[in-house]
Design goal:
Strand order of the largest sheet: 4-5-10-6-7
Structural class: alpha+beta
Number of helices: 11
CATH architecture of the largest domain: 2-Layer Sandwich
Helix content: 25-40%
Largest sheet: 5 strands, antiparallel
Distance between the termini: 54 Å
CATH class of the largest domain: Alpha Beta
Strand content: 15-25%
């Protein structure tokens, strides 16, 4: 394969428009190559482009590694970053690569959904910013055009006062999520976002509405919140878990995260 090493984002966009496959950390693409599932003839590496590594204020460049997010990101996103593979994977893997793969189990996705983040996309024709729920359109599918690259994640001007991430898997480390979730709480407003329980990251809107109407939730309120989350998710049975367990776990995990926020 031919590998291009641009030093500017405009050069990378031109290579993408010409059909090159983007390579950021390579933690997903190279697995596909090594297993013979992908055979790109033209690859454009994004590693030498400073613009995508910028991490300032509410804008996180697509080339920012999970290691940097682990050390400097917002609380729940940093919590999620610590669960992404081994230290070597976190040093290489990027938030943009995680988004582009669009796996339902992507650990970074629930935080972006919970805070209503936007995704900045770029092409040789310009840039556009779209909400997270317009970016994800299916299992490992996004609304990106063929000539577009992810340039950044844009967080809202202010984040909820409290936010927590949690994950359930078949072991405690270096594992793909069976269920992952982020819960936020600001004054009374609560958001609940989950991964691995639907074709795309999702919000449990009915559960949010119910618990946001309660200023000081009782055990009964928390139980109803848990039930609503379990009722709203749309999991499947696969080699990692059953639909029944995922549904149960989604409710339990969301309740525990809410209880952390309330404390």
């Amino acid at each position: 394969m031919n590998v291009h090493h641009p030093t500017t984002f405009d050069e990378a966009l031109a290579a993408k428009a010409a059909g090159a496959v983007p390579l950021a950390g390579g933690t997903d693409l190279m697995v596909e190559v090594n297993f013979g599932h992908a055979r790109p003839t033209e690859v454009v590496s994004l590693r030498r482009i400073d613009e995508v590594k910028e991490f300032e204020g509410r804008r996180i460049g697509s080339g920012v590694s999970w290691r940097r997010i682990e050390n400097h990101g917002p609380r729940a996103l940093a919590q999620a970053a610590r669960t992404v593979g081994s230290p070597q994977i976190r040093n290489a893997g990027t938030i943009g690569g995680n988004l582009a793969t669009a796996s339902p189990a992507g650990d970074g996705h629930p935080f972006l959904a919970a805070v209503d983040a936007q995704i900045e996309l770029a092409s040789v024709d310009g840039r556009r910013t779209i909400p997270w729920d317009e970016f994800f359109v299916g299992v490992k599918k996004t609304s990106m055009a063929d000539d577009e690259l992810i340039s950044a994640v844009v967080l809202p001007d202010s984040l909820p006062e409290r936010h927590e991430f949690g994950k359930i898997g078949v072991r405690n480390a270096m594992v793909i999520s069976t269920v992952c979730a982020v819960v936020t709480r600001d004054d009374q407003r609560t958001t609940v976002a989950l991964g691995s329980v639907a074709p795309t990251p999702m919000r449990a809107r009915r559960a949010e509405e119910m618990i946001s109407a309660v200023s000081n939730p009782s055990d009964k309120d928390l139980a109803e919140f848990q039930r609503l989350v379990s009722d709203e998710v749309r999991p499947i049975t696969d080699h990692r878990s059953t639909e029944e367990y995922r549904r149960h776990a989604a409710g339990v995990l969301s309740r525990r995260l809410l209880e952390r926020c309330l404390r």
